[in-house]
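Chain A, query sequence.
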Amino acid sequence: MQKMGRVMMVGLKTDAAVSMTALNLKKGWNLVELISDNMKSVVELMQGMEDKIASVWKWVQGKQKLAVYLPEQEKKQTGATGTYAGPKGFEVISNINPVEGFWVNVVDIGDDESIVIDY
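Chain A, predicted structure.
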């Protein structure tokens, strides 16, 4: 006898426009994708939000390793990301490629707040 499973699908209907050129980030870890035809500098993407973003992470497929960028630390001391990443065997992120997924750890905002990164 074959068992049947259940699938629940939840959706939200809204008339609000969805931006394809902005990232809306909540406190904590956010897995996002850059929907763009062009590569973007991680420094430029995070500019003005350094105090609210602890780290940005992505997987570098060609090297089979993680890469990191630490905006909050870089604001305090240029090169801080490399100092952290090198000994741990991580790469340093310089760019985010089109349709590439990456993790952003947002800190220093309220639980119900969000930040928007335009690109």
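Residues 53 and 106 are 5 Å apart (CA to CA). Residues 7-14 have pLDDT under 50 and may be disordered.
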